[in-house]
Design goal:
By secondary structure, the chain is of the alpha/beta class. It is built from nine helices and ten strands. An eight-stranded parallel barrel has the order 1-2-3-4-5-6-7-10, surrounded by five helices. A two-stranded antiparallel sheet has the order 8-9.
């Protein structure tokens, strides 16, 4: 386990078919303190079986010295109940936006979040909203606008290093809204040549040392702020040869930076 107050977790999305005991062994073997679990169709825990399987998974992970800090799922009451029964504190979602209707989408999402706060209170489970490129709230300032006026005990911002960097936000500024941290990296890659009529670009997700987000600056800023919450390495890489090895290397790099 990590000897500092920080918890380093990994999002287990790359291993959807791994049996739960083998998944726990994998996460522990990589050196993580815990995990974020997708509760989605096609994974070890699904929305249909979460009432039983999430608690079983948490128990197995606990046997390996691991904590399940959060899940990535949706906001049905059954998911809140499953989290409460299993002792999982946070449900992570993205803030989806309809193209051409940003303001209306933000208002609708804020109303949805306000509407499920009674479930947060009943089950003592909070919601974390993460920024994400595309048809979502894509940067820290969008999260700040969305969450203004909502009870921060129950609805929080999940700051994502790669997505904020893709949006052009400096980490020292974006971390003003942080409640939880996703640590990953990405850069823009041109997909056509200079002879093209117009340039086309692709978001390339890469290892921690090689993208637009400066992990050293992020670590320095979080240390300056005395951040002690979870840091989730999201295991997102572009067609990797070995996700586990890249995760191991990124975790080693992150631990060095936060030492």
């Amino acid at each position: 386990m990590n000897k500092t107050a920080l918890e380093f977790t990994v999002f287990t999305k790359p291993w959807p078919t791994e049996p739960i005991p083998e998944l726990a062994k994998l996460v522990a073997g990589l050196g993580f303190d815990g995990a974020e679990i997708p509760v989605r169709p096609g994974f070890q825990v699904t929305p249909d079986n979460a009432g039983k399987m999430l608690a079983e998974l948490v128990s197995v992970f606990g046997d390996h010295g691991l904590k399940v800090v959060s899940i990535a799922s949706s906001l049905e009451e059954s998911i809140f109940a499953a989290c409460a029964a299993a002792g999982v504190s946070t449900i992570r979602i993205m803030g989806q936006i309809k193209r051409g209707a940003y303001v209306q989408s933000e208002e609708a999402l804020r109303d949805q979040l306000r509407g499920v706060i009674p479930l947060c209170e009943r089950y003592e489970v909070r919601i974390g909203v993460q920024e994400h490129y595309g048809d979502n709230i894509s940067d820290a300032f969008g999260l700040r606008s969305l969450l203004r006026g909502l009870d921060s005990r129950w609805v929080c911002a999940i700051w994502d290093a790669a997505h904020d960097a893709l949006a052009g936000v400096e980490p020292e500024t974006g971390l003003d809204v942080v409640s939880m941290v996703n640590l990953k990296n990405a850069y823009y890659e041109r997909t056509n040549g200079p002879e093209a009529e117009a340039a086309e670009w692709h978001r390339h997700f890469t290892s921690g040392r090689h993208g637009l987000a400066s992990w050293p600056r992020i670590a320095a800023e979080l240390r300056r702020r005395n951040y002690t919450g979870p840091i989730c390495l999201t295991a997102e890489y572009e067609e990797p040869a070995d996700v586990a090895q890249l995760c191991r290397e990124d975790l080693h790099y992150a631990r060095e930076l936060f030492a």
